[in-house]
């Protein structure tokens, strides 16, 4: 099965490379993303496009930021930029 992984793939570079290489060897697609499909603002944009509220849409480019820093417990257990 192909893999859809909430980012990050791993908490360090070596583990990330290992995961990518294993997926390549097995012929499995590996994709990472930050899922925003159910974010209220993204839903509002999608609805506005579907209803024609904003007119003909050719390209949509969105930027999203969390409203506050993550809780300390999350930071202590997380990886990526918090490591």
Q: What can you see in these coordinates?
A:
The protein is an alpha+beta fold and 83 residues long. Helix content is 39%, strand content 10%. The chain contains three helices and two strands. The longest helix is centred in the N-terminal third of the chain and has 14 residues. It is flat, with a radius of gyration of 17 Å.
Structural topology:
Elements: E1 3-6, H1 13-26, E2 30-33, H2 40-51, H3 72-77
Parallel strand pairs: 1-2
Which descriptors would you attach to this protein?
83 residues; two-stranded parallel sheet; 2 strands; 3 helices; alpha+beta
SSE string, helix = H, strand = E? EHEHH
Helical residues, percent: 25-40%
The major sheet is characterized as: 2 strands, parallel
- What is the general shape? flat
Put simply, the count of helices is 3
> Structural class, from helix and strand content?
alpha+beta
Strand order of the largest sheet: 1-2
Termini separation (Å)?
30 Å
Mean pLDDT: 84
- Total number of beta strands: 2
Report the uncertain regions: none
DSSP strand content: 5-15%
Rg, nearest Å: 17 Å
């Amino acid at each position: 099965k192909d893999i859809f992984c909430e980012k990050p793939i791993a908490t360090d570079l070596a583990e990330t490379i290992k995961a990518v290489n294993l997926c390549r060897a097995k012929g499995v697609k590996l994709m990472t993303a930050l899922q925003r499909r159910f974010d209220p603002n993204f839903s509002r944009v999608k609805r506005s496009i579907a209803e024609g509220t904003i007119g003909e849409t050719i390209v949509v480019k969105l930027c999203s930021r969390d409203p506050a820093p993550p809780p300390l417990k999350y930071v202590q257990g997380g990886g990526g930029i918090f490591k």
